[in-house]
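Human:
Focus on the backbone:
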Amino acid sequence: MAQSYSFERETEEDLIVITARIGNSLVDLVVDTGASHTFIDFGVLIKEGYRLNDTKGIIAVETANGIIYANRFDVTFVNALGITRDDFEITSYLFDDPESNFKGVLGLDFLAEKEICINLKDNVLTVR
């Protein structure tokens, strides 16, 4: 069964931002079909009780701003767009912009095995 979610996008430069639940935290994440992995600001994980000792290791990640080194974590669950992933591996680092209106990126690993339709005309994202 398909579920639709509306989003706000006032200009062509605006990103698609949705709300997700990571543990007890509600966070705004960018839907990024160009990202292979899901990234979460490490500050969110700290709030949820995760520490650097919980890391599964460090990986090099190629971003639009160059290569960064980030930690991999298994989080208890992530829920967004009607999808729940238990014991889900995310990548985390401290985001540079504390005034950013989002705290991470929802990547293709989270959206895997789902049919996603992004309607930019009506600002609606549909998940099947």
Observations:
- The chain has a mean pLDDT of 93.
- The first strand starts at residue 3 and ends at 6.
